[in-house]
Every structure is written in structure tokens, then in C-alpha cells.
From TrEMBL:
The keyword rRNA processing does not apply. The lineage of its organism: Bacteria, Bacillati, Actinomycetota, Actinomycetes, Kitasatosporales. This is ABC transporter ATP-binding protein. The chain holds residues 1 to 218 of 328 of the full protein. Keywords: ATP-binding, Nucleotide-binding, Transport. Belongs to the ABC transporter superfamily. Residues 2-218 form the ABC transporter domain. One of its GO terms (molecular function) is ATP binding.
Length: 218
């Protein structure tokens, strides 16, 4: 369970994230909808400690991210900025991440299988297509077998097969009881994946509702 309370981020006199309070619950896909520039990425970066809030807090299972002893075992994220070391193979990229986070190295082959990259595991990731890079990012998020997974605009730029694969993966992870939080600027995409919807605009919370209710009211 993720809990945001009054989460705020200011850049100079611009308020990118404005007093956001909501919860993200386990066992379902929660969509995070808002137009480009609404503050979704900034919010997600603060959720995994890559950015410091100006105000408010994020709690992961009751704790601040910085107090999680082994964060990748609690929460895994696919954020666009999370680039891999291009000169390393997919396998070695994940191996380094496993070793520096005390994750059993046997997980590396498991997650490469899960994302369908086992056949190219020894290839340098800089030669990867966008879709393969996305799969590698997802593999890194899954590495610690976390209960919480966050995906920032995961289907952007992917072909229909890749989009279909990511949607199914998120649903499967949710059906295993995990907490899935996924952002998009497209309502059409959210309608196909999310069970619950958080809508923001200009950093502010606009709606926090089940998908069924949202569709009925709009
Ligand atoms: P979204 O992910 O919904 O597209 P972002 O979180 O990327 O939105 O951005 C929210 C707002 O914060 C935008 O107006 C953006 O320009 C601004 N912003 C994001 N990061 C920075 C930064 N490092 N410095 C200044 N402004 C930023
Ligand atoms: P950098 O390569 O920019 O130094 P790190 O890999 O050290 O970044 O990660 C910075 C922070 O983000 C760390 O606290 C780390 O635990 C967290 N982090 C990195 N990758 C992920 C991920 N896939 N999911 C969740 N948190 C991550």
C-alpha cells in the first residue's frame, strides 16, 4: 500500500505537484491519468526517493522510502529516465543491480525469462529497440520481486504487440495481489488496464474513483 499525504513539489514559483493525497491499494491496477505536464512523473519520482518533496509525504507500507532497508524488494519502478548502462549486456546490467541490492543473482535469469529477453541476454543493451529497452526496464523493476510496481507511461512508442504484452503483464501482477500504479495521458489506455483511477491536472487531484464509476459519470 502506498499513501500520499499533501505531497507537494515546487520548482521556483511553479507548483508541479500540489497537495496530493491518495492511496494506492494492492491487488489491482491503479491508473494515474493526466495531460502532459500534469505532474505524474514528478509524483512518481518522489514516490521512489529520486526527488525530494517540498512538502507532504509518501509512505510505502507505512515507511518512508529512505527508511526501507532494501527498497527494490518493496517497490520496483519503470521510469523513463532509468537508463541502463548501454555498453553492458542485458544480463550484466541486471546482475549489477542484483548484486548492489542484495538480490539473489538467480533472479536475473528469471526476470529475463518473464520479459522475453532471455534469447538476447548477452547482447549489449545499447543495440536494443525501444520495446526491448522497455522490457529491460521492466525486468529491473521486477528483479527484487516487489509487492509494489510503478510504470510511468509504459506503452509510449511501443508497437501493438508490445502494448498488449505490457497490459497483460500488469493485470497478471495485480491478480497476484501486487500493487500496480501506472501513468498515462490517455483515457483510452487507462480504460483498458486500470481498475481504479487517480486523475490529476496542474498538479492537483481531480478524481479518485473506481473505473466503473468514472465511466458512468463521464
Ligand atoms: P507529467 O509527467 O504529468 O507529464 P511532469 O511531472 O513531468 O508531468 O511535470 C510537471 C510540471 O513540472 C511541468 O510543468 C514540468 O515542466 C515541471 N517540471 C518537471 N521537472 C522539472 C524540473 N526539474 N525543473 C523545473 N520544472 C520541472
Ligand atoms: P543512479 O544510477 O542514478 O545513481 P540508482 O540506480 O543508484 O540511481 O538509484 C537511485 C535510487 O532509485 C535508489 O534509491 C534506488 O534504490 C532507486 N531505484 C533504482 N532503480 C529502481 C527501480 N527499478 N525501481 C525502484 N527503485 C529504483
Amino acid at each position: 500500500m502506498i499513501e500520499l499525504e499533501g505531497l507537494t513539489k515546487r520548482y521556483g514559483d511553479k507548483t508541479a505537484v500540489d497537495q496530493l493525497s491518495f492511496q494506492v491499494r494492492p491487488g489491482m491496477v491503479t491508473g494515474f491519468l493526466g495531460p502532459n505536464g500534469a505532474g505524474k512523473s514528478t509524483t512518481m519520482r518522489m514516490m521512489i526517493g529520486l526527488d525530494n518533496p517540498t512538502g507532504g509525504s509518501v509512505r510505502i507500507d507505512g515507511k518512508h522510502y529512505r527508511d526501507l532497508a532494501e527498497p527494490l524488494k518493496y517497490i520496483g519502478a519503470l521510469l523513463d529516465a532509468k537508463a541502463m548502462h548501454g555498453g553492458r549486456s542485458a544480463y550484466n546490467n541486471l546482475l549489477c543491480l542484483a548484486q548492489s541490492n542484495r538480490i539473489p543473482t538467480s533472479r536475473v535469469s528469471e526476470v529475463l525469462d518473464t520479459v522475453g529477453l532471455a534469447p538476447v541476454a548477452k547482447k549489449k543493451s545499447k543495440g536494443f529497440s525501444l520495446g526491448m529497452g522497455q522490457r529491460l526496464g521492466i525486468a529491473s523493476a521486477l528483479l527484487g520481486n516487489p509487492e509494489i510496481l510503478m510504470f510511468d507511461e509504459p506503452v509510449n512508442g511501443l508497437d501493438p504487440e508490445g502494448i498488449h504484452w505490457i497490459r497483460n503483464l500488469m493485470k497478471r501482477l495485480a491478480s497476484e495481489g501486487r500493487t500496480i500504479f501506472v501513468s498515462s495521458h490517455l483515457m483510452s489506455e487507462m480504460a483498458l488496464t486500470a481498475d481504479h483511477l487517480i486523475v490529476i491536472g496542474q498538479g492537483k487531484l481531480l478524481a479518485d474513483t473506481s473505473m466503473a464509476d468514472f465511466i458512468q459519470q463521464n
